[in-house]
From TrEMBL:
GO molecular function, a single term: ubiquitin protein ligase activity
Domain of life: Eukaryota
Native source organism of the sequence: Carya illinoinensis
The keyword DNA damage appears for this protein: no
Keyword Manganese: no
Family, as annotated: Belongs to the SINA (Seven in absentia) family.
Pathway membership, UniProt: Protein modification; protein ubiquitination
EC number: 2.3.2.27
Domain SIAH-type, chain residue ranges per copy: 44-104
Catalytic activity: S-ubiquitinyl-[E2 ubiquitin-conjugating enzyme]-L-cysteine + [acceptor protein]-L-lysine = [E2 ubiquitin-conjugating enzyme]-L-cysteine + N(6)-ubiquitinyl-[acceptor protein]-L-lysine
InterPro entries linked to this entry: 7-in-absentia-prot_TRAF-dom, E3_ubiquitin-ligase_SINA, TRAF-like, Znf_RING/FYVE/PHD, Znf_SIAH
Protein name: RING-type E3 ubiquitin transferase
Length: 253
């Protein structure tokens, strides 16, 4: 919406709050007088997406541009590192290098994993998060997380996978996590969440393998004074069956 002061100076409704309802030209108080002529001019404009330098080729009418940019699939991603609010943003190749070089996150090529988590004094860990590994699988990147937190008053551990890309593309993949010992095991299968979702949002939705602390310590064996968990898993791509139209798994070795 385009507004103007009593002297005819114009500015947009977004900027009105930034100038504290005062015209930046004449300092008169701004009302809600719309400049319809300028709005008509704005409606006729077609502008490219501001993320064109990242690959977006779309062109939009002026008033649709901001709405598109808020959801543009080429918009930069926030750093997915868990455990700190890292302010870095960028495309996927940049963030993979950033995670490796600045956060010292391990990177591996392959779609299967086998991790062992060892923590002394696990009863003292109420809120902790670890981004353990970034996997390069099927030409895409995935982040494996492991967290300790409370559900109500119950201490739990949780493992989950995030996809370094958009939500729609994440739906093409599935993953499994498994933990166990002494002839018992827990399993989880699901779809990785996009890194568009903050890791806390994923954690708080309980979208992953959740292990109660007493079960985790049972799996650890011994005197239950040390956490020793082995978590294995794999990632696969759901492919369309050309004959029956049914999704069949394509498992990367």
């Amino acid at each position: 919406m385009q507004l103007m002061c009593q002297n005819g100076h114009t500015l947009c409704s977004t900027c009105k709050t930034r100038v504290h309802n005062r015209c930046p030209t004449c300092r008169q108080e701004l009302g809600d007088i719309r400049c319809l002529a300028l709005e008509k001019v704005a409606e006729s404009l077609e502008l490219p997406c501001k993320y064109g330098f990242l690959g977006c080729t779309e062109i939009f009418p002026y008033y649709s541009k901001l709405e598109h940019e808020a959801q543009c699939s080429f918009r930069p991603y926030n750093c997915p590192y868990a455990g700190s609010e890292c302010p870095v943003v960028g495309d996927i190749p940049f963030l993979v290098a950033h995670l490796r070089d600045d956060h010292k996150v391990d990177t591996h090529v392959g779609c299967t994993f086998n991790h062992r988590y060892v923590k002394s004094n696990p009863r003292e860990v109420e809120n902790a998060t670890w981004m353990l590994t970034v996997f390069n699988c099927f030409g895409h990147y995935f982040c494996l997380h492991f967290e300790a937190f409370l559900i109500g008053i119950a201490p739990v551990y949780m493992g989950f996978l995030r996809f370094m890309g958009d939500e729609i593309e994440a739906q093409n993949f599935s993953y499994s996590l498994e933990v166990g010992a002494n002839g018992r095991k827990l399993m989880w299968e699901g779809t990785p969440r996009s890194i568009r979702d903050n890791h806390r949002k994923v954690r708080d939705s309980h979208d992953g393998l959740i292990i109660q602390r007493n079960i985790a310590l049972f799996f650890s064996g011994g005197d239950r004074k040390e956490l020793k968990l082995r978590v294995t898993g794999r990632i696969w791509k759901e492919q369309q069956n050309p004959d029956g139209g049914v999704c069949i798994p394509n498992i990367c070795s």
